[in-house]
Specification:
Length: 316
């Protein structure tokens, strides 16, 4: 059934952005196995379609692999919580065989975080908890938050041809859900279920996160967030019917921009970098707002580089 839904999405050129839901109330049905059919869908994706490759997955929200039992891995919790990366340093290892272009995009995504936040990426040596960046299975997806062992970011061929998907998946690994599943979503956008492909699997993707497990750190809702989906997601007639409409003034493309926005970076910097939560109400953005380079004092881990050996070993 799921594959039929995705095929319908592709046929109708839906900019299908799966969203993150609270998971536990739906039982094990939402903790899905990767569908091998996703491989072909991503490899054959037309770049001009406007669809991001991670939108074609069949996990919760399309691209979120969540553990059983459920892990408390949203935005709640202090910096010492085990699902946060200590010292704002993500330990990573490239476990897949990526070509040189894919590696440049993966490392480029890491540099985006290092440019706009205090988060740093350090290549693994013997650390038990780390992000394993792989491409040996199907789909574009990630675990949410730091696990006690391996945290997976999976980028099959077709997922790392641009910066957008690696940035999005690394945001999940840092512990972020999708923007349009925030508890205050309905104050900012109207979700139009009557325009969606009529299946429970689609509706589940628009459920709100658990109040006890999430916080927005008093940062306003951001329609341009790297974690927001486009407004034609899952539409039965994407050329005519939108599934989300803004309830606030919005100029430009509705949904995910090319990289971190100002508020994406602020959320990370509050969660990991000691930036205080705003005490005064910040303006709600009415367009895509680029992030500003980080200015806080940090002691960074070594800057990630694509070493000649690493690129050579992955070139195809």
């Amino acid at each position: 059934m799921y594959v039929l839904v995705v095929l319908a999405v592709v046929i109708h050129h839906v900019a299908a952005k799966f969203s993150v839901a609270d998971l536990s109330s739906y039982g094990t049905a939402l903790y899905r196995r990767i569908d091998p059919g996703v491989d072909k869908l991503i490899r054959n994706l037309d770049p001009s379609s406007g669809i991001q490759p991670w939108q074609l997955g069949n996990l919760v929200g399309g691209d979120m692999a969540l553990p059983l039992p459920k892990l408390h891995n949203a935005l709640v919790g202090n910096s010492s919580s085990y699902f946060r990366w200590p010292n704002a340093t993500v330990i990573y290892d490239i476990e897949g065989t990526f070509n040189s272009t894919e590696l440049l995009m993966i490392y480029g995504a890491m540099r985006e975080f290092q440019k706009y936040t205090c988060v740093r990426f350090k290549q693994r040596t013997t650390e038990e908890a780390y992000v394993a960046i792989d491409n040996r299975k199907y789909g574009c997806w990630a675990d949410v938050g730091r696990g006690r062992g391996k945290t997976r970011v999976h980028l099959q061929p077709g997922c790392a041809n641009a910066l957008t998907t690696p940035i999005h998946e690394l945001m999940h690994a840092l512990g972020f859900h999708h923007e349009h599943n925030r508890l205050d979503r309905d104050d900012y956008i109207d979700v139009i279920y009557d325009h969606m492909i009529p299946t429970p699997a689609v509706y589940f993707n628009f459920q709100l996160v658990e109040e006890s497990e999430t916080t927005n750190f008093s940062v306003p809702y951001d329609i341009g967030s790297i974690m927001h989906y486009l407004n034609t997601s899952f539409s039965v007639k994407p050329d005519k019917l939108r599934t989300m409409e803004p309830l606030i003034p919005w100029n430009g493309t509705f949904g995910q921009g090319p990289t971190l926005t100002k508020y994406d970076a602020l959320l990370i910097n509050i969660m990991y970098c000691g930036i205080p939560e705003p005490t005064e109400r910040l303006p709600v953005p009415d367009r895509w707002m680029p992030a500003d380079p980080i200015k806080v004092a940090v002691t960074p881990a070594p800057i990630v580089t694509a070493t000649p050996m690493k690129i050579a070993s992955g070139t195809t």
